[in-house]
């Protein structure tokens, strides 16, 4: 059973964190832990909701701007560094490695329990890239479990905000067919072996202050050239993709944000500042409807892979889209009756509704 240590000052100045002890790693790399981070609520701040943020691959939580955005709207802000990621990685552990994305359910469940207990609020779950896939699958499983128990998942979680979620494997169709079968076979034989991928620092250089970016973060946790990709981890992701493509019901409304263009590049040039150079945005658009319930899918012109780390105009547009969506779907007070009524008509009956848009306005 997982246990939780007390809050203590975090590596991010002014924030606090606590360790979630998760026991023995199912993948055989010792004891595993996750780290829950929170932005302390100011004396003059009112709390009417809560947010739990989950990072992607080669990432961790450092985004103060995001936390301040939600705090200004009455949300207590928390973030989770998953096992073997960021603050949570321990000596001898393979960065970000899991052989099954469902292993993350343990820390997600525990984090949700803590956030709900501390705030007394339903929790908006926000996630980026691989984290978006992880959270969608977790929400689907927990929604179905709640239904079986005669409960409502939306009494715990108010919605999902997915920022460029990884919904399919980028690259040629051959990689998604024959390539996936090769990955599956290698994952059985040598799961910790690394794929031989071309080196590239374009994305990291576009973000970090040491390159051409405006963001200062710990390069030990988010290196410019990324961490190696292992066969076992990629196989877990591909299994997650396959499950998503069969259709989920996450049980709550979701907002999916992405760039309006993709351009893959290994080395930095200014034109990659306004595109997703990591994922194929057409895949995100194609598979967003598989989330079930009410899905709002919005392209953000000029956005990077992480839309909230984009250049200022695109970043402002992304936050404005979140504002509009919150007001429509998840705002506290009078909107809760509307949300509960809609959830009763769609998610709990097994039917789904989908809202899509071709612009961010």
Automatic annotation (TrEMBL):
<dbReference type="GO" id="GO:0016787">
    <property type="term" value="F:hydrolase activity"/>
</dbReference>
<feature type="region of interest" description="Disordered">
    <location>
        <begin position="341"/>
        <end position="361"/>
    </location>
</feature>
<dbReference type="InterPro" id="IPR051044">
    <property type="entry name" value="MAG_DAG_Lipase"/>
</dbReference>
<dbReference type="Pfam" id="PF12146">
    <property type="entry name" value="Hydrolase_4"/>
</dbReference>
<protein>
    <submittedName>
        <fullName>Alpha-beta hydrolase superfamily lysophospholipase</fullName>
    </submittedName>
</protein>
<dbReference type="InterPro" id="IPR022742">
    <property type="entry name" value="Hydrolase_4"/>
</dbReference>
<feature type="domain" description="Serine aminopeptidase S33">
    <location>
        <begin position="46"/>
        <end position="190"/>
    </location>
</feature>
<dbReference type="InterPro" id="IPR029058">
    <property type="entry name" value="AB_hydrolase_fold"/>
</dbReference>
<keyword id="KW-0378">Hydrolase</keyword>
């Amino acid at each position: 059973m997982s246990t939780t240590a007390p809050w203590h000052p975090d590596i991010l100045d002014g924030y606090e964190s606590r360790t979630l002890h998760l026991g023995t790693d199912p993948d055989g790399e010792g004891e595993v832990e996750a780290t829950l981070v929170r932005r302390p609520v100011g004396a003059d701040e009112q709390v009417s909701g809560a947010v739990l943020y989950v990072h992607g691959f080669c990432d961790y939580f450092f985004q103060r701007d995001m936390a301040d955005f939600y705090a200004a709207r009455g949300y207590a802000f928390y973030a989770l560094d998953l096992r073997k990621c960021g603050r949570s990685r321990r000596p001898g552990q393979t960065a970000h490695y899991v052989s099954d994305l469902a292993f993350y359910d343990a820390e997600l469940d525990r984090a949700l329990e803590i956030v709900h207990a501390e705030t007394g609020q339903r929790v908006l779950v926000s996630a980026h890239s691989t984290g978006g896939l992880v959270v969608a699958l977790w929400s689907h499983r927990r929604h179905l479990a709640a239904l079986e128990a005669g409960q409502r998942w939306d009494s715990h979680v108010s919605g999902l905000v997915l920022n460029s979620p990884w919904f399919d494997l980028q690259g040629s169709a051959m990689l998604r067919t024959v390539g996936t079968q090769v990955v599956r076979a290698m994952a059985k034989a040598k799961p910790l072996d690394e794929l031989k991928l071309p080196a590239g620092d374009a994305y990291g250089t576009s973000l970090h202050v040491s390159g051409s970016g405006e963001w200062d973060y710990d390069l030990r946790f988010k290196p410019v050239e990324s961490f190696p990709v292992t066969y076992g981890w990629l196989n877990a992701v591909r299994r997650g993709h396959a499950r998503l493509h069969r259709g989920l019901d996450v049980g709550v409304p979701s907002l999916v944000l992405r760039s309006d263009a993709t351009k893959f590049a290994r080395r930095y040039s200014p034109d990659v500042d306004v595109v997703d150079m990591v994922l194929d945005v057409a895949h995100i658009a194609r598979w967003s409807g598989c989330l079930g319930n009410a899905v709002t899918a919005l392209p953000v012109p000029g956005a990077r892979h992480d839309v909230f780390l984009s250049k200022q105009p695109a970043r402002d547009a992304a936050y404005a889209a979140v504002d509009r969506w919150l007001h429509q779907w998840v705002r506290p007070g009078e909107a809760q009756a509307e949300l509960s009524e809609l959830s009763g008509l769609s998610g709990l009956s097994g039917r789904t509704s989908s809202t899509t848009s071709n612009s961010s306005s």
